[in-house]
Amino acid sequence: MDAAGPILVVVIIILLLLVFSCVKIVQEYQRGVVFRLGRLVGPRGPGLILLLPFIERMQKVDLRTIVMDIPAQEVITRDNVTVRVSAVAYFRVIDPNAALTNVADFQKATSQIAQTTLRSVLGQSVLDDLLSEREKINVDLQRIIDEQTEPWGVKVSVVEVKDVELPQSMQRAMAREAEAEREKRAKIIHAEGEYQASKQLAEAAEVINQNPVTIQLRYLQTLTEIGAENSTTVVFPVPIEMLAGLVGTGGSSFRPSTGAPPQGATPAMSDEDMVPGTDIFGDEVEVVPNNPSKPSGIYPL
Prior knowledge:
about 45% helix, about 25% strand, alpha+beta, Tetrahydropterin Synthase, Chain A, rod-shaped, three-stranded antiparallel β-sheet
């Protein structure tokens, strides 16, 4: 009886080990791939899985999306510019049987194929496309990597280029190019503004030309604007027509002739010696034509 006690304990322990080895629990996001005597039986789960002891073996596969950082790669673009590019890939297992039987380590294999594809695709692009058409490059990367990982039961859903590191010399050159482009746009916009302003000024001149009184109103408005700025100096433009009118009131005053002035008293001249004309101020005058016997000049009416 005393010898049966230890044997019974050993039997109970062996039974418990067998029970624990036969009963498996698979989570909702996992699948258990069962092998029976080395042959693939298929996936099971989720939930409680019962296995035949010493005959069946199960290996769990996670079906959740895996986020994988693609290490930075040295890439030479099609226009011979060396850049360092890093990316990130999102993939998940859709066929647990293929993920275990067709490849030894599907995560490592996906990482390696993503690195080589990244160098290959970016090497066929120019630098401008790499910087501006990021979405198209991401789609191409995702499509190519997914085609290569499909036999492994892996679905690559998203591939995104995270960072593009440019050499310092290339960054300075691109900064100069961007500055020159901004200056060109600024000059074009300024020229267009000047052109539109000149057209508006031409139309305003046409309106003012139809009614000359409007220019006087413009002068008064200018004085109002100057007075609002608390300026101590006021520059008031006076039209030439106003000065001509003031000078024209003294019509009897003598204006010097353009020719040689007469010596002494003005000689008497008949009406046939005089011809009508106008001076530089617009006043009507009588002009004496050049005559050797008579001095020429301009005399007021």
